[in-house]
């Protein structure tokens, strides 16, 4: 297996790619207010692959959507590349943050190439020929063939849908990529191939990645750090080996319960995690 990008050692003065302080997320339900996050802090530095882990209802995907700007917290601040998330315009935000949604979220009436090109058509004033060329470059970057550009989403396998959605997330060349369960629903071979692709893109494009995943293989193969959400906040944010050693009931159940043997095998298999 090819060497893995190590956990980057950033200068203290380096501006974090994402900085979250005092975040509170609430949802109004009939007769009560449900709090998902309360005084949550998280820092993601340039070049990291930060994985968010937590039980159901801990707001992992909600946090991704807040960083993307699709949802707003009740309180607290989210800064992307040193700027408050709310101050970024749509064009600036799209050029800085790309997102791969769990089920791809492709437009069923658009071809593969049209799906990939969509953000450029909407947010940039460029000649059609340049948009087509850029979309074709991204199509091939994710391991698809030029002929695949004419296909419709209904013609694609699950693995191909993920790759098309990834190409669309990268079309604006964002330095920050958000991944929501990137290997969910894929068979083992497709999952392995997609993880290998993500690892290569992280290295070659110097991406910073924030990922939500429940899959241990994906978690250990890609993550430089893991942030565990519990008790409405991040209880630990550290390299994988240090997270596993952290004393907390959720961490024990998630990593050292029924899946504990597999977690130990993965720590030995991927030495960067140790």
TrEMBL record:
InterPro entries: AAA+_ATPase, ABC_transporter-like_ATP-bd, ABC_transporter-like_CS, P-loop_NTPase
Keyword Lipid biosynthesis: no
Residue ranges of domain ABC transporter in the record: 18-256
One GO MF term attached to the UniProt entry: ATP binding
PROSITE patterns in alphabetical order: ABC_TRANSPORTER_1, ABC_TRANSPORTER_2
The keyword Transmembrane appears for this protein: no
UniProt xrefs under Gene3D superfamilies: P-loop containing nucleotide triphosphate hydrolases
Key words, A-Z: ATP-binding, Cell membrane, Membrane, Nucleotide-binding, Transport
Cross-referenced Pfam families: ABC_tran
Name recorded for this polypeptide: ATP-binding cassette domain-containing protein
């Amino acid at each position: 297996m090819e060497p893995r990008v190590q956990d980057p050692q950033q200068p203290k003065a380096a501006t974090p790619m994402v900085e979250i302080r005092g975040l509170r997320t609430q949802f109004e339900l009939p007769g009560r207010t449900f709090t998902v996050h309360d005084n949550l802090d998280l820092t993601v530095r340039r070049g990291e692959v930060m994985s968010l882990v937590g039980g159901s209802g801990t707001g992992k995907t909600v946090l991704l959507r807040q960083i993307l700007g699709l949802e707003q917290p009740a309180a607290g601040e989210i800064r992307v590349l040193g700027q408050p998330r709310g101050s970024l315009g749509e064009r600036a935000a799209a050029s800085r943050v790309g997102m791969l949604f769990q089920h791809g979220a492709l437009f069923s009436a658009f071809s593969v190439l049209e799906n990939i090109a969509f953000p450029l058509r909407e947010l940039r004033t460029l000649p059609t020929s340049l948009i087509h060329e850029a979309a074709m470059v991204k199509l091939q970057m994710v391991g698809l063939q030029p002929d695949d550009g004419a296909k419709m989403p209904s013609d694609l396998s699950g693995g191909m849908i993920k790759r098309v959605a990834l190409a669309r997330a990268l079309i604006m060349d964002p330095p920050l990529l958000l991944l929501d369960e990137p290997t969910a629903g894929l068979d083992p071979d497709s999952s392995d191939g997609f993880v290998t692709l993500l690892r290569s893109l992280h290295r070659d494009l110097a991406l910073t990645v924030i990922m939500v995943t429940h899959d241990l293989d994906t978690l250990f193969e890609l993550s430089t750090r893991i942030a565990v959400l519990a008790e409405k906040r991040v209880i630990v944010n550290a390299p994988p080996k240090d997270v596993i050693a952290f004393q907390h009931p959720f961490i024990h159940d998630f990593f050292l319960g029924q899946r504990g043997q597999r977690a130990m095998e993965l720590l030995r298999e991927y030495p960067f995690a140790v």
